[in-house]
Amino acid sequence: MSGSNELEGKVAIVTxxxxxxxxxxxxxxxxxxxxxxxNARSNRAEADAVAREIEAAGHKAVVHIGDVAxxxxxxxxxxxxxxxxxxxxxxxxxxxLRREKPFAEMSYxxxxxxxxxxxxxxxxxVKACLPHLKKSGAGTIVNIGGLSAHTGARDRAHxxxxxxxxxxxxxxxxxxxxxxxxxxxxxVPGLIGTPRPKNTPEPAHHLIHQxxxxxxxxxxxxxxxxxxxxxxxxxxxxxxxIHSNGGAYLGA
Length: 252
Known about the structure:
This protein has helices at about 20-30, 45-55, 70-85, 110-135, 150, 155-175, 220-230, and strands at about 10-15, 35-40, 60-65, 90-95, 140-145, 185-190, 240-245. It has one domain (about 10-245): NAD(P)-binding Rossmann-like Domain (Rossmann fold, 3-Layer(aba) Sandwich). It is about 40% helix and about 15% strand. It is of the alpha/beta class. It has a seven-stranded parallel β-sheet, with helices on both faces. It starts with 10 loop residues before the first strand and ends in an 8-residue tail after the last strand. The longest helix is centred in the middle third of the chain and has 29 residues, at about 110-135. It has seven helices and seven strands.
């Protein structure tokens, strides 16, 4: 799809876009012609680097640092996108926390931290974006799910619950927003090879799953699915959880 301009004239917000899957999504949507607001919670250097990549390829980008768990910061992010680009057509809810801890040792504060970013953050973003997405005429919301929400996993009760909630949120919004011409879908990555902070082990649940090919996916594989769902050819796809996992999970 590279080289086509199916998203020309569109404006997208991608949360958690400073690295890995979020970065790949921002670059893919820009390659389709969209102007991108690159969001990161705190790492401006990473977000600025993504914006520079987009601009170097001849596309438009602006950076906004803000925590999606804070409704006020989310509203400021949306206002920034609309004031800078004049409109908003696409929201990609990618920001999330992926912690691991046995449930018996998990505090309520640790539980809430994950919910606040992954699930409440998606709520705040949709609420703030909704008036502008309605004006688009072809608004699109893509939520990023997680493999463990479908398979379960040890030491991830908070993450599994939040990501399962994202799937439910997707299906509910698809019903609520269809009359406004807004599609809502979920892309579920699985076994994607991404750089991890030093001394951070690979998630434990990755070790019990295998892809059909035996290879891990790339962030670009997830981004390609998101880009398709944001384009005109996907307007009849709504309320779906679409898996990008190399066959590691074969289910609805």
